[in-house]
Design brief:
By secondary structure, the protein is α+β, with helices and mostly antiparallel strands. The protein has 3 domains: 138 residues, 3-Layer(aba) Sandwich (Aminopeptidase), CATH 3.40.630.30; 161 residues, Gcn5-related N-acetyltransferase (GNAT) (Aminopeptidase, 3-Layer(aba) Sandwich); 93 residues, SCP2 sterol-binding domain (Nonspecific Lipid-transfer Protein, Chain A, 2-Layer Sandwich), CATH 3.30.1050.10. Helix content is 26%, strand content 30%. It has 12 helices and 17 strands. It has a 12-stranded mixed β-sheet with strand order 1-2-3-4-5-12-6-11-10-9-8-7, with helices on both faces. Helix 1 packs antiparallel against helix 4. The structure holds coenzyme A. Coenzyme A (COA) binds next to strand 4 and helix 4. The site of coenzyme A has 18 residues, from strand 4 and helix 4.
Amino acid sequence: MDAHELALDPASTQALAARDLRLGLVDSADRDQLAAWHEADSRGFHDRRPEQQSTDELREHSAGRRITGVWDDAIPESEVPVATVSSWVAGLSVPGGSLDAWAISSVTVAPTHRRRGVARALLEGELRTAAAAGVPVAALTVSEATIYSRYGFGAATWAADFTLDTRRAGWVSTIEPSGRLAFVSLQTAEQTCRDVFTRAWAATPGDMVIDDLHWGSLTGVYGDRDKRSASLRAVRYDDADGIPQGVVVYRLKENHADFTKHTVEVEYLRAATDEAYAALWRYLIELDLVSTLHHGVASPDEAVLWMIRDLRAATVTPYDHHWLRILDVPTALQARRYAAPLDITFRIDDPLGFTDGTFRLLVGTDGSGRVERTDASPDLSMAAPALASLYLGGVRTATLARAGRVVELVPGAVARWDAAFASAQTPWLSYWY
Ligand SMILES: CC(C)(COP(=O)(O)OP(=O)(O)OC[C@H]1O[C@@H](n2cnc3c(N)ncnc32)[C@H](O)[C@@H]1OP(=O)(O)O)[C@@H](O)C(=O)NCCC(=O)NCCS
């Protein structure tokens, strides 16, 4: 589905008009309009002013993206919007399946117009537009963990800031890769990343299909706002049959005081096989002149920790990463598979109305689920953000129950839910968007 074809939300348009603000869609074919929007988006995140080349790349590589702005016609230079948001539809991997998600990005409100309800109007409008278009889940990555639960989002995957003392780590894995490593150009790396991602993402709940713009930026092919691609290197792993099975894009950060203590900064690493994964990590850990490896968006559960001798060579700092918002409970819950049979009735409290009510989830022995609304009394009750956090199996219901975010109304319901919702793979989103 092309999100950019969908009309503006009337309620948000009215709410903003009541504040003398104008909600509108940006025609990305209009170079000046897109440049002004891009300026506002960058300013909102305290980024440098975008160059024309960067705006041209945004236009060329963001087909299907719905680009929205809010304008205040009373201010000088009013062509630059005072708020921005963009959205598109992308596949989201869930345990045993996938579904369409409404990806939301570029949420900014100019500091001159903050705390007047502009973000609320934009976010609620995004959710209503997505729901009306039949998209069952909305998703975003966040600058602050305090902003989005009021709209029903919950943290569903974690990522990790991963630092490794490579001299101390000690490679002890028994995996013996039979393929080979080779440097490739960033253009080739981009293509390999896409191929490998296509094969690997379905096994990683919470990961979302990466659009052209983000691939270009991750691999340094375009979106080169800070000229960082000049320092990027890419190494590919091909298996014994010559099939590319993994790639890492990285750069070296020099330590000028000691040239034997550079840092290797992982920009993107993806492998479709365990051999490729082991070969790429070993390559990074054993690089000459490097003493530190840093990966800012590692999985919170990297297998590499079990491939080294000294676990304490690694410092792993998890952080909430992919935030989800369930918009359609039956469609979302029926899109995933479950680890155990289940018959459970649960109440969702959703002040925005999308999922408010009581539902029954019935999981058969084949792991597939069926969901319907019911008037029966619930076994569990929770608010919309808790359902989003539990959806991928990355958060334990027992933990949310201990925190008071899930209320167990029938003894044993929490344990039954946990057994069914458990995910075989740790959920993870491999990039920021
Ligand atoms: C975060 C941001 C978009 C909020 O915009 P805003 O128009 O000031 O927000 P609103 O006035 O609509 O506020 C809506 C609600 O969110 C709350 N809120 C707004 N910003 C918040 C923040 N940074 N942290 C916690 N709560 C926040 C408000 O208090 C208000 O709460 P309430 O309606 O429940 O009483 C804006 O401050 C901004 O652009 N920040 C910098 C860029 C950024 O971080 N964007 C988010 C990217 S994920």
